[in-house]
Automatic annotation (TrEMBL):
Compositional bias per record (Low complexity), positions renumbered to this chain: 895-916, 962-975
Domain Myosin motor: 9-707
UniProt GO molecular function: actin filament binding; ATP binding; calmodulin binding; microfilament motor activity
Protein name according to UniProt: Myosin IG
Region of interest: Actin-binding: 584-606
Coiled-coil parts of chain: none
GO CC field: cytoplasm; microvillus; myosin complex; plasma membrane
Organism domain of life: Eukaryota
Principal localisation: other
Ranges where the record places region Disordered: 877-1022
SUPFAM superfamilies, per database record: P-loop containing nucleoside triphosphate hydrolases
Organism: Papio anubis (Olive baboon)
Family (UniProt): Belongs to the TRAFAC class myosin-kinesin ATPase superfamily. Myosin family.
Subcellular localization, as worded in the UniProt entry: Cell projection
Amino acid sequence: MEDEEGPECGKPDFVLLDQVTMEDFMRNLQLRFEKGRIYTYIGEVLVSVNPYQELPLYGPETIARYQGRELYERPPHLYAVANATYKAMKHRSRDTCIVISGESGAGKTEASKHIMQYIAAVTNPSQRAEVERVKDVLLKSTCVLEAFGNARTNRNHNSSRFGKYMDINFDFKGDPIGGHIHSYLLEKSRVLKQHVGERNFHAFYQLLRGSEDKQLHKLHLERNPAVYNFTRQGAGLNMIVHSALDSDEQSHQAVTEAMRVIGFSPEEVESVHRILAAILHLGNIEFVETEEGGLQKEGLAVAEETLVDHVAELTATPRDLVLRSLLARTVASGGRELIEKGHTAAEASYARDACAKAVYQRLFEWVVNRINSVMEPRGRDPRRDGKDTVIGVLDIYGFEVFPVNSFEQFCINYCNEKLQQLFIRLILKQEQEEYEREGIAWQSVEYFNNATIVDLVERPHRGILAVLDEACSSAGTITDRIFLQTLDTHHRHHLHYTSRQLCPTDKTMEFGRDFRIKHYAGDVTYSVEGFIDKNRDFLFQDFKRLLYNSTDPTLRAMWPDGQQDITEVTKRPLTAGTLFKNSMVALVENLASKEPFYVRCIKPNEDKVAGKLDENHCRHQVAYLGLLENVRVRRAGFASRQPYSRFLLRYKMTCEYTWPNHLLGSDKAAVSALLEQHGLQGDVAFGHSKLFIRSPRTLVTLEQSRARLIPIIVLLLQKAWRGTLARWRCRRLRAIYTIMRWFRRHKVRAHLAELQRRFQAARQPPLYGRDLVWPLPPAVLQPFQDTCQALFCRWRARQLVKNIPPSDMAQIKAKVAAMGALQGLRQDWGCRRAWARDYLSSVNRFYKIRNRALLLTDRHLYKLDPDRQYRVMRAVPLEAGGPRPGGSRLRLHPAEPARGPAPRLGGAQAGAARARFPLRPRHLHPTLAQPLSARTRRAPRPPIVRPARAANKPSESTRLLAAPASPAGSPAASSVRSTRAPLTRWGPDYKRPGAPTGDRSPSSRSKRSPEEAVPLCPSLPRPRSGPLFLSTGLLALFLPGHWGRLRVHL
């Protein structure tokens, strides 16, 4: 903490002062204030000085620095106290409270705002909608309550004229789930009159200066506050303190928006504005005496009856009833007979003012109750949701001393006496008693006990409040002067009470009016004028019945007691003083049941100037707040105390003898061993059940040691837990893998069994399992099945090939070679295209079918007649767009519409043909011929192609394909056996079918060199290169160096 601030900023804790004197205390306070350090500790008590300016000490970044930290880990700050309160509530499940005290203008309201902002910022990490709604209501409620309960005074621009205690409910996760606001003693007399330099409540000026012209016209108001008696005093003053954002105009918009966020309906907001306007009009009503009778009995009338019309309209009540309630009142006689008694001008003014004060007080209470109805926890069941914990924030008026102090100042100062008594009891007296109970020897500290002052005010029968209640309830005329004489009689010997009658030489007090009480904060002189009336707080029943019968539901809900009949006998209501005393007793008991944290606020100067600290003024506040006595108690005593078990639970990891569990005789011995290891035994004292630590530095040292070890312990726990999780996961994985292994075995066995069942008949010829369907394998057997399929294909091929004669093996090899050469060159090379009909046959005029053949070279396309020795019927040159060697294509179109796709003539590297007819497929069996050699003097004789039997078989044509010339050594030409007339042999021994043996074809009688190809007909030109294709029987290929044949089997 000192490392962050430095010694030039003074001591961050007054307990660390070298000497505990008022001069040293003020010197340290002055030094820290000049350095911008407005917060200082006294142990766990925070001292705050109002800077009267905006300082960069707040915001999300600062909240993050203090969140989760210990009280002494960071420089003194409001966030540190709020964090300590929240941690005590969340971790120890204890109800806590923050008591903010100080005189008016010391910054109590601003401190409560920052505490609320911190709590709202650190809660609800999961962003639950209900929690966010509660947080918004908590934050916005401050703005609304300030508008209706705060006012500008000579000592503070935004002084709280009521006491506020807010309970915030939290669930077991530490998120706010609701809240409740308690208000104490609203200074409603401010509605009627203010001191010079002060203003009425902010709500009136915000309504006049912030409303639109249309709304003001609707409310019959003018924008100038000086027009109205209740706001004329503060008309020339503005609420601006630090920035233009605090102007009345902008504050009105902020309050309206806050009421909308909280849950006020637009109708309720309009009702609030109408009630405020009615109060302003009511204050301008004047009474005059007239000579006429009638309704205005005793000659009393309203000077300006238009105001009565405005009040009746704004309160939604009949005009004649409003006028009658102002001018007279109805009383019930002993025989329950109703009598109407007219007012005098003074009585009418008193009734008007009482009505204005009561209406504003009921309005303020309705606003508080409306906020509470929104903040109440919804649907909470302790048996289901667990016990809720509470953080209380007390922001109540400070000690006040004015030139003229009346009943309100008396109650406010009594409240501060009660709070000081609680502070003394919890911080000073209770601490000394605890030291004595634990057997700790220490030097007793003298302090001022204000119990005698509290007893002077609230003692039964003889206290000031008891005497005042007796004066209010006594029959006859009891004046304030008689009340003062009774006080002098009862307390003439009291050390803290005096008056002019008891001390005639004191001319600062007047006879029959003033008395003085010596408060813990100083002497205060009170004027008894108005004590009885303010304590009685009397309002005629006529106004209650009038407002209860209003048609405005909001106003009607504020006056439930107006439904009582005038003749009904009720108990005497409690006086204002008694109600306030009871509320203070309940408040103190509530605070005493919680773990308190204190914020003591100091006002630096009376001028409300930034950067100025009036030493005399601050010295007086330090004295009456008891801060110096608090330092002495902390110095003489101990800064912290903890039970041994709790101390060990937090710090046992810092000692090897206590971690993880000690084996010593008791927790006290274990704590002693821990402190000896750290060398801190000289700064502590051992009680019977608690350890007392004198210096905060000892706690800081232990916290630092613990902070260094916590990550190691966390890693150890994480390692053990992660190991446990890993072992659990390993066991699960082993079980999973075992199940998977057995399941895979089952799948493999089932698949193998299915394979065995399907392939039982695979050895049967002639198909050898060709049509068998392989079952879908498991993923793990996919490579195995691929291998099996390859092996099966090789086995089946072997079974088929081994039955082929050796003489046909060359044809099989050629066929395989052709298929391999052609299959990958084009996506569809025509081997599987269906041959739907005979595209080459023609029908003559006698309806006879004539077979035709096509011969394709690299230069011409020839139409041939197979029945006449393949005579050329027509030749078409292919010079322009014909097929070329190396991939040319030609599509044939029949003369009449075809029932199937037209065949395509195409080529790639070698020619091939494979036809699939509608009935059954055909197989191509190429036979590789011997290559022509230069040494061969004569072309070899090709094998004889024997004609096939054409009985009962239709005439068909073969598909024609064109291909470029193949290189030497590749599969060459083939001959085709047709289903119709076979093509005769060719070569040197060519003989025409049907010719006698020994006859030679003319083409065969000519001499040819071995390098020349054998033409089919003498009339055909010799092809220079490329294949020749014949259809309807034989496909002859003539290639340079090779020749062959291709046979088609049905």
